[in-house]
Amino acid sequence: MLGLVLMLLVTSSTAAVGWLAPGSPLTGDLSQRLKPPGSVNAHTGYVSWLGTDQLGRDILRRVLFGARVSLLVGPAAVAVSVTLGLSIGLLAGFYRGWLESLLMRLVDLQMAFPFILLVMAIIALLGPSLQNIVIVLAITSWPQFARTVRSEVLSLRERQFVEAAKSVGASEPRILARHLLPNLVSPVLVLASFEVARMIIAESSLGFLGFGVQPPTPTWGNMLADGRDYISSAWWIATFPGVAILLTAAGVNFLGDGLRDLLDPRLRRR
Q: Which pTM was predicted?
């Protein structure tokens, strides 16, 4: 419930950004630069509840707009990863033999690449953009789903309901779609919820390193990068984006933990 409340708080704040912090996150006022939280603009009367940055841009406005990037990149990257990893894991676990060896060696090959080198190569080739960040994060996370799904399918394919389906002449595509796939929803859903939190942190890390969505588009990562030079004189520039990352990742993780307890009877709290 705590995770659900945190996620509802983040998403509703993002949706209500026009009411909570009206204006453009790109517009700055140099006369208001580095103002502390709670400062009031003498000309407009606007209250900067979280302060302003080195260009006089409102931190609250930029944090809320930056949440849109993280909330888009995280689920989108996980959706691509689930689709790819589920397909590969399902085929590898069900058909076994040379196909399993080929697909699992592909998984091992991808996991052997260091994350940062893979990111640098793809960004250098395609350029930094929102779409390319989703591609990068999806490529680095699909092996987790493939390995999880394969291990589940190896167990399920020996169960009696699969043998019964084969005995009545059910085709292999039907067994995959009607008998195996529904039994994979629970573990995949739980893993996906944890991966969303990891994707949000990874996207912020890429933004901090300069490989993410480029300025002036506000993201939590590039806001942290901007604030590191002012950490001793204007702590609020880096602190509030960091708190936003913490709360969002914690909310997703708590929600995933609750889903795991709910969907797995062995872990369900009494």
A: 0.86
